[in-house]
Amino acid sequence: xxxxxxxxxxxxxxxxxxxxxxxxxxxxxxxxxxxxxxxxxxxxxxxxxxxxxxxxxxxxxxxxxxxxxxxxxxxxxxxxxxxxxxxxxxxxxxxxxxxxxxxxxxxxxxxxxxxxxxxxxxxxxxxxxxxxxxxxxxxxxxxxxxxxxxxxxxxxxxxxxxxxxxxxxxxxxxxxxxxxxxxxxxxxxxxxxxxxxxxxxxxxxxxxxxxxxxxxxxxxxxxxxxxxxxxxxxxxxxxxxxxxxxxxxxxxxxxxxxxxxxxxxxxxxxxxxxxxxxxxxxxxxxxxxxxxxxxxxxxxxxxxxxxxxxxxxxxxxxxxxxxxxxxxxxxxxxxxxxxxxxxxxxxxxxxxxxxxxxxxxxxxxxxxxxxxxxxx
Length: 376
What we know:
mainly beta
């Protein structure tokens, strides 16, 4: 009985202390992580053609299961993988942009504008997600837009879209911009001339061409070319001459080319397919079809022609080593079509040809440049 009498007050004291509290601060449970919804894309609209290289991207804000401060991450890329690892791009322009920590905007939307110019005339993809504390929302769906249609000409590099009513070159003779298709050379004395700011000793000259037709007039009719200065094209010592021959050609409808590395009279620095190859290179081209032409030069020379544009069927692909001489025109001049030279109008521009997406550089055409010109 004495033991029972002693323990009871002690138990009562413990219960009393628990009921009335103590001097220690109770622990508050940590709130659970918030569940966030993905932000929704608002602007630009899907596949919109923009007139800027620094677009403002806007999303409708995410929602959360708990209150807290939210920021946003934006990604822009010229591929749906949102990485530039597999792409080449134009120096001085961005092909990928990422930005974290963009503060949530008031009024239910948040916007982001890149601080650098994106690559022009290119399809870009973009997305966004929200961050609150340690919680991150799913990515939004991927949107797409097209950057400003814009050409440029600078040392070592030229790009000319030609479908937006402008050219970085000089229009000579009768020419017409055809909406969404390019610049048409209306007759045999029309051409576009590019006076390059710096000689390109080796590189690529490529473009998309419509309006080429089988059994057209002409002999050694020119698709495009290059030379030194403004002297006669046919006798120029640095002539590059890409042909699609007309009905008086030998043979008609043949693809042929000639490259001269420094002396128009020296056969040792002249490079061209032989007669057998020329006669094996007859193609009946259709004026409504786009053909992508690419010529490369340097220690070797090569011409490729692809039916249906890049990604289409290769119809012509032929080249050779060019170990003698070098290509060093000063000044360096390039043409779409060609001026009338000593051989006359039968060996100049092909009337009715339409050009777009022109690239001339000391390096290969960037992978996604010009993707904004694709037919939608």
